[in-house]
Design a protein that fits this description.
two-stranded antiparallel sheet; mainly alpha
Length: 209
Amino acid sequence: MEKKGVLVNDSLVDKFKKEIDIEIIKSKKAIYDLPEVKAYKEVNGEFNYNSPIQLIKLLTDFYKVELHKQTTKGSLCVDSEVLNELREQKVGIAEKILRMRELAKLKATYLDNIVSETDGRLRTEFSCIFTATGRLSSSHPNMQNFPKRDNAYIRQTIVAKAGHKFVSIDYGQIEARVLAMASHDKRFCEAIWNSYDVHREWAINAFRA
């Protein structure tokens, strides 16, 4: 899987990059059009939305927001958690900054420089030693993190070769099946063969407890 890689639809990659670039331009304009940002500019000069220091000053001086979360070094923090809380409080710029970060991540992580220049294939690195659970992990890029719900269109860039299809397969109750195979417990094995939903049973027992 690592050596062969997967095919990438270059035209879709280019299309999505252009669409994101357009949305980034629109989002920037929306930020700079905010009354608070205009007021900031009159006092402090151009506002850089990528600067945590300037964002903190904008929020505290012009939005009159009290920030409490701090970094490990003791300075105020404006990470995603803080911005999500401010978005719920209807602080206008919070949602726009979050969207800008989301767009930048989509472009940098899933669309820029992920395709081999030699043959146009995407190759990830798989490992089973880096996760605490021993499950398979993926890196450079992490294909397991390709958007599944929001921005799921990114997945359209990965395509099967002509005459083939991608198939999604899930190991149903794999842990329970392994236990049945290892234990040779007749009742347990019979229950597995008869589509016994062990996870549902465990959930019911946990709820009752």
